[in-house]
Every structure is written in structure tokens, then in C-alpha cells.
Amino acid sequence: MIQATAVAGPRAEPYPRFSVAEIERRRAALARVMAACGVEHAILYGANRFGSAIPWLTRWPVTREALCIFTPGERDLLLVDFYNHVPNAARIATEADVRWAGPSAIETAIVELRRRGAAGGPVGVIGPLPYAAHLALGDAAGTVVEMSADYLGLRLVKSAEEIEWLRVGCELTDRAVDALVAEFRPGLSEHELANICQRAYVAAGGRTHVHYFGVTPMAEPGISVPGQWPSARRIEAGDAVSCEISASYWDYTGQVLRTFAVATEPTEQYIDLHQVADAAFDLIVDRLHPGTAAAELVAASAVIEEAGYTTRDDLVHGFVGGYLPPVLGSRSRQLTPIPGVTLEAGMTLVVQPNVVTRDETAGVQTGELVLVTDRGPERLHEVARGLRRVA
Question: Which end of the chain is more exposed for a tag (fewer CB within 10 A), N or C?
Fold first, then answer.
């Protein structure tokens, strides 16, 4: 059982922590999923700051490599690499037995699984466990049961505590966008735009999830969506700057997408693109109610194609805890079949009808993270909407 601690919450010191009740809720949910999959032991894996299941269960943000053995009724074993990361992990993941992963994390884990009586039986795996580790685990356990999709299902609906933490991540994301608006000026490079974003939230405990930028002259546009890697290009008067900004607070991440006209009024083309995008956003958000089918959100975006435009980015996707269902494209950009997902209260979705021209020379970004509630959709961001002139 987890030992009670005096202080919990996103502002607890020296590290924020969830309550005992919240962590026990997660453990119980994971145990139920494991029972349904026919496994008594599970390995949660992450590496190189990727793998959200580890911090969800233990609070330790993955650094180089981390592997957690979860057995209902037993204390978690958290194996951490590098060796010098173990002391910090022990200060954060206080309910787990934290040890060095050793020369091979999977071999160390197999020793523990055998001690727990898992030899020859099925073991669940959550996260990007490497192929060689899969082989070694299969030799020891007999059957490896892939449970990453089952874990993602546990992340679709957020608890009240998770939403409290998420509000912090959204506020930090808003800070970054507001800082961009305040500091935009011709001559800044995309690298400097990234610097502005990070300076807005790092001192408050935020970390960068993404900051993507697309810079192109509105008179002769050639970029319709932001790039994932900033370039050395310097913005000029008359440019359109589109952006996707996400600051994270202990894996609870906001997301805002906006477009700005630099030192001049937007052109008619960009005004029209953005008006269509705003209309699609409003139509989709109006349908974010429990019981709404994913197909209804796609249908609400038909205004994009009716205006003669299309999209390249996803139209809607679940977010926080992973890139979650439903992942949807607009009618003219269906990469995969529309999933049979029905919305529930507590889901958080990014609505981002990023409208582009059919030849993909011009486009706008607009959207943000929205919470589905029993009372209807709730904005989690306060940053102003709309196509704005800056500088």
C-alpha cells in the first residue's frame, strides 16, 4: 500500500505529487486491465524522455531509461539508468523501490520477475520495450502480452486531480503565446522565437513539449504548416507566422495553435483562410458533449471543403497522456477510417482545423486543448483567439 504524505498537489514542494487516493486509483485501474488481459505482472518501459506510463504510475519522468515492474499487491520496482539518476528518482518516486537498472535493465527485471513467480507465465508490456528485450522477456516469461493500447485507454478520461495539473500546463502554454505576441518584431529568427517561448515558462517549472513555427510571406506564400525544427530564417514585415505551442508541467501539457501577421494587416487570402478555420473550430467545439460520436466531429468540419480548402494536419486528436483517440482528419484528408469513439466527460481534445489551400502554398493554424464536461465544452486556455497583427 502507498504511505500517506503530508502535502500533495501540483504546487507541492520540493516536487509536486498526486494524492494517495489518485495513485491508488491508477493502480487499481491498471490491475483491472491486467486481469482482463490474463496477466499478473506487467513491465512499464520508457527511454530518452519518452514513455508516459512510468511517470503516470511512479511520478518519475523518464530520463535515459526506466523500467517499472508492477504486480498488484506488491511494491513497484523502478529500475533507472543512468546510475547517477537514481538518487533523484528515489526522491520523486517515493512509493517505489528505486534501484539502478544495471548493465541490462531487462535482465535485472527478469531476475525480479522470477522472484515474484512470473517464470513461464504471461507478462504484460506497456511502452516501447526494445526488440531484444522483448526476446529476452519472452524466453523467461513464456508469453509477452502487448498492453500499450490498454494503457492508453486508461488515459482517455482525466480525473479531477489530473485536470487540476493540466490547468497549470495550459497556463504555462498561454504564457508562451502571450510572450510571442509581446516580443514579435522583424529580424527575429525562428530560433529566437523558440527562446521567447521557453523563457516564458521554464522559470515557473514548465518544460518544452513542442514549439513549431511556419514563416512565409503572405504576398507569395510557400509554407502551409509549421516545421518541427526551427530554421535560421528571420521574420520580415508582411510575413505570416503560424505556430503550435505546448508547454508541459510534469507531463500535463497544454496546446495552442495560432497565426500572426507581422507588422502589417493580413492579406485577403489569409483572412479568408482564418475565417473558415474559425468557423470549423466553433462548429466542432459546439459538438464536444458526452455521447457525441467521432464521425459527428468530422461532419462538422465540412465547411472547410465547402469553402474550397483542405487540411494537412489532424483535425482533432485526444491529448495528455499520449496522442490519444479519436484522431480525425477532415473529409478531404482521411488517412485512416473514422474510429468508432464516443466522447465522455473528462476527455481532453485538441481541436485544430488548420486550413490550407488545395495547392498547400498557404495555410493557417488555429486551435487549442478543450475539456469535455457534462455541462458542455470548456476552454482550458485563455490566450486570445483570432488572426492577429503583431509587431
Answer: N
* Pair (220, 112) in one structural domain: no
Same structural domain, 237 and 120: no
Average pLDDT for the chain: 96
Q: Which three cell numbers stand for residue 117?
A: 513467480
Mark whether 101 and 227 lie in a shared domain. Answer: no
What digits encode the pLDDT tens for the residues 42-56? 999 999 988 899 999
**What is the extent of the structural domain holding 346?**
160-390
Does 121 lie in the same domain as 189?
Answer: no
Are 292 and 330 members of one domain? yes
pTM of the predicted protein model: 0.94
- Cα(157)–Cα(162) distance, integer angstroms: 10
Q: How many domains does the chain have?
A: 2
**Using alpha carbons only, what angle is made at residue 14 by residues 13 and 16, rounded to the nearest 5 degrees?**
60
Of 155, 186, 202, the last residue of a domain is 155
Which three three-digit cell numbers place residue 291?
455521447
Cα separation, 279 vs 305, in Å, equals 12
pLDDT digits (tens, 9 = 90+) for 86-106: 999 999 999 999 999 999 999
> What's the pLDDT tens digit per position in 212-271?
999 999 999 999 999 999 999 999 999 999 999 999 999 999 999 999 999 999 999 999
* Count, residues in the chain: 391
What is the C-alpha to C-alpha distance for residues 320 and 380, in angstroms, rounded to an integer? 13
* Grid coordinates given for 122: 504471461
